[in-house]
Amino acid sequence: MKKIVIIFFFLVNALMADVHWVKELDDAYDIAAKEHKIVFVILSQKGCPACKYMKNVVLKNDNVVKEMRKNFVAVHLDIHEDFVPLALEHFVTPTLFFLNSDEKILYKVNGYKNAKEFLADIKRVAKTNL
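Below the sequence we write its predicted structure tokens.
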């Protein structure tokens, strides 16, 4: 019985250790307006090691996930496969945008950050939305 409880605990943790992703940017703006959250957009492309690091390491960090779920609505856009609005100007991938529900850019990051740096950024951005 103890083994079953331990396995269940790890499975639940594995399922919870991810940011909630919204598929469409317009939906993200609507949700952000209703829930008083900030829209987080990551622009990436296939074959980008820094993009993979952000999605698979930084955005799966427990502290980052907790903060993201609390204050942000997240959207992932591939620059070659998805529509990227002209306002989300990018030169490198990943490019990270934080926008309010009125589509105003609050903060932009060109490139990737480690979990500690990213967590500091998202906490700072979350305070600007108050």
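The helical segments are 2-16, 25-35, 49-56, 62-71, 115-128.
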